[in-house]
Amino acid sequence: MAVVTITVDSTDAFKQRVKAAFAGKRQPQRISFESFDLLWKVLAPNRMALVHTLTGAGPVTLREAARRVGRDVRAVHADVHMLLQAGVLRKGDDGRIEFPYTAVRVDFMLKAAA
After folding, report:
1. What is the Cα–Cα distance from 22 to 18, expressed in whole angstroms?
2. 113 lies in some domain
3. Tally of domains in the chain
4. What whole-number distance in Å separates Cα of residue 33 and Cα of residue 65?
5. Most buried of 39, 59, 78, 114, CB within 10 angstroms?
6. DSSP structural state of residue 42
């Protein structure tokens, strides 16, 4: 099962993972965001529903993705574009989109406001 962890990480934590990867240490699959606000901006409820629907589905057309989430193709197109830019979705040479994981773990911590 290909599991990805979606997380909020500091730039330093990201750099440490990159260094470890270059040193040959296998890293778990991660999609990291710099801040909680950015995570919620990119993974707004409609986009997260799209990610959930595409989890384990394999490559699909934009029209098929829209059909599966029960939304208009134009609205889904905007969401797909944002998710592609953020590196959450992938687009194949044939134009199909994919979320190449079969499971998602979301991992972040909220601390008391200062």
Report:
1. 6
2. no
3. 1
4. 24
5. 39
6. H
Decide if 46 contacts 83 (C-beta within 8 A): no
CB 72 within 8 A of CB 80: no
For residue 31, give both structure tokens.
Answer: 């999609």
Contact 76, 50 (CB under 8 A): yes
Is the residue at 114 inside a domain? no
Pairing outcome for strands 3-8 and 103-107: parallel
- Give the mean model confidence (pLDDT) for residues 9-25: 84
Buried b (16+ CB within 10 A) or exposed e, 77-90: eebbebbeebebbe
Q: What is the value of pTM for the model shown?
A: 0.83
Task: Find the CATH number of the domain harbouring 15.
Answer: 1.10.10.10
| pLDDT tier for residue 108 given thresholds of 50, 70 and 90 | confident
Tokens at 58, concatenated = 């394999």
